[in-house]
Design goal:
mainly beta, Jelly Rolls, 6-stranded antiparallel sheet, 1% helix, globular
């Protein structure tokens, strides 16, 4: 995040001696992006972060994609996916390309290992469930509606509370940030941004572990999952400061932008990354021109694939969609409201829908396993009844 945060104990200056009570040194780690020219934080550890007693290859995490068939709109009923597990190994991928993977997970089990994505940032949208995520930067509590942004290389583990739990997961090969057009030259969110720094939650407590032993950290990198056994607890940070850290933004704090006539999807943008954007469709007042059509117009995605994850409410432009549905509207063919939805929207004052949209600027591929819960006739749901 483009604002400064400090937690725990740190020395007065960077790169100077910082000693424990017994006179030995804390171990300084600079963690940054884009070499040394991006945002960064400096962490101080009880032990060397490089102290590994064993390194093993677990295997590939890459899903198997289907062969390209006819270009169609797709609908995946992910509510039919009932398998549970932990927040990482239980992930079920649905779509992907060279820039990201999109999936779901029902995390009902606490992770008995730690995890870091060595390829890029991750974003997890909490559809259902509460719990906490322990990280090297501190602990965050999560609840429904939270977007959890986990920076590249951050060691962490999810500890869900008991009960039903469901996340939408976006794994990237780059970074995730707030939209550039909502930031000034210094990174501060501007007055016309639909949210601001006050809405962002940062780690609440820095819990420091100094114990030694064997602790497993699984690292995602280069299309593979690797196991590293560390000789000490990986969350041994006594203090840190900087601009790089995990954070949470709840979708209820997104203030929708509305107008007299229908505004295009970029007004809903919440995040951006390399070759993709993420938007939030939240409850909002409809357009207020006396002749306005609140439903979106038909449009062609000439530059992007559009993915929608439906959270709750009655989505104003769709029929046959249910909670946790994922739709894919690919570039190359137009899409828009289902029959009757335009007419039904005229005169309405508000919508109570909640959905997450992901637009990718390179074509997405469908994971083979996703076919098991696909609504096959979806492409033909725009045919008007005779």
């Amino acid at each position: 995040m483009p604002f400064y945060k400090q937690m725990g104990e740190i020395p007065k200056k960077r790169h100077v001696t910082f000693r424990k009570e017994d006179g030995s040194l804390y171990r300084e780690q600079v963690m940054g992006t884009k070499g040394f020219s991006g945002i960064q934080s400096i962490l101080y550890h009880h032990h060397m972060p490089t102290s590994v007693s064993k390194a093993e290859l677990i295997g590939s995490y890459m899903p198997q994609y289907e062969e390209q068939g006819a270009l169609t709109h797709r609908h995946f009923r992910t509510a039919m996916h009932h398998e549970v597990g932990d927040a990482v190994s239980g992930r079920e991928y649905v779509l992907g390309n060279e820039d990201l993977l999109i999936g779901i997970v029902n995390p009902t089990k606490a992770m008995d290992y730690f995890y870091r994505n060595g390829d890029g940032d991750e974003l997890l949208f909490v559809h259902k469930g509460t719990g906490k995520v322990e990280t090297m930067f501190g602990t965050l509590s999560y609840r429904p509606g939270d977007y959890i942004v986990m920076p590249i290389g951050t060691i962490h583990r999810f500890l869900p509370d008991s009960g039903e739990s469901k996340f939408l997961v976006v794994e990237t090969n780059s970074w995730i940030s707030t939209p550039k057009r909502y930031r000034n030259a210094h990174g501060q969110l501007l007055e016309h941004s639909p949210f601001c720094e006050r809405d962002i939650r940062v780690p609440e407590e820095l819990v420091t572990h100094s114990e030694t032993g064997e602790f497993e950290v699984r690292t995602k990198s280069r299309g593979l999952i690797h196991r590293h056994v560390m000789t000490h607890h990986p969350l041994d940070v006594v203090g840190w400061d900087g601009y790089l850290f995990p954070w949470i933004f709840n979708v209820e704090d997104f203030e929708p932008i509305t107008g007299r006539i229908h505004l295009p999807p970029p007004i809903h943008q919440t995040f951006e990354g390399n070759n993709f954007v993420i938007c939030s469709f939240v409850p909002r007042l409809y357009d207020y021109h006396p002749e306005a059509i609140p439903a979106p117009y038909y449009h062609s995605n000439v530059d992007s694939d559009e993915v929608l994850y439906y959270v709750k409410g009655n989505f104003m432009s769709r029929k046959g969609i249910e909670e946790a549905s994922i739709t894919l509207h690919p570039l190359g063919i137009p899409h828009g409201p289902h029959p009757g939805k335009i007419e039904a929207s005229i005169g309405k004052k508000e919508t109570l829908e909640l959905a997450v949209m992901i637009d990718t600027f390179r074509p997405l591929k469908v994971v083979k396993k996703a076919q098991t819960y696909e609504d096959q006739p979806y492409m033909y749901s725009w045919l008007e009844s005779k």
